[in-house]
Amino acid sequence: MPSCFCYYETASSIGLFMVGFSNSCSNEGMNCVLIFTPHFFQRYAERMGVSDNKDELLMKFTSSTRSFTVSPMDKDENGHERIAVRITTDCTGYGIRRSGNENVFEVRTILTDAQLSKAQSARTERVRSLGDLSQFEPVEITARRLEGIGGIGNITKAVNDRLEKLQSVGVDTSYQVNGMKLSMTISMIFMKMGIASLYDADYWEKYGVESHEPISRYLNRMAERDPEFKEFPELVKTVREIAARMGVRKFAWREFAKLLMMEIYKFDESKAAAYIKEIYPM
Known about the structure:
Layout: E1 2-9, E2 14-21, E3 30-36, H1 38-47, H2 54-64, E4 69-75, E5 81-88, E6 91-97, E7 104-112, H3 118-123, H4 125-133, H5 139-146, H6 152-168, H7 174-192, H8 201-223, H9 231-245, H10 253-265, H11 269-279
Parallel strand pairs: 3-7
Antiparallel strand pairs: 1-2, 2-3, 4-5, 5-6, 6-7
Helix pairs in contact: 4-6, 5-8, 7-8, 7-10, 8-9, 9-10, 10-11
């Protein structure tokens, strides 16, 4: 995921250097540098319908981009490996891997999904699928529902179908699956508790940002298989952190823990309440 960046101005646009850090369980620390050229930002402004004002352009790009997925393609006429970079859920950047710098990528232009030819769509399907799935928060589901594209059931089925397709070609999607399920479970319980409704788009956009780090940290801890790690109490602790980040006042975390236990273990309410009293004595 992007962590820090620096930018420079040219006469016609801006350029940007961005350092990437992995979110996966098996990779830690910096793993790439992305260079977005002035030509990229000229095309970004044109094709994403963004003002070419340099300050507005920079703010729009950095605020709407939370993660990247880089995928190699064939080589160009100069022998450089072409790459595709999933930037948001509806656009893909194209460029090269810098010669002699394995993890330095130069992104030169951008196309929206609507602009892709059939051949381009086929070549970039993997990076587009992986990039979309790396965003496991419910923001996209809410946004699409509000736009009248379809119900949650349809969107969830589409995501599951894409996961199955990736799994069938040997792509490990367990991290995305676990993250998506956990995020959806938390958000559904929040709605049951009346903290937010399905149509609070601003709330879910903030939830997507604030929940990502705590959920990723929890999944990484769980993957370490530390015998001292207690999954349920740590999950409740993670949710309390998310609620604090969201500014939820007087968060009824014991009630959340009870509903979570009912959801995960399928306990009835009385049994779940008894276990919560045992785990968290007053």
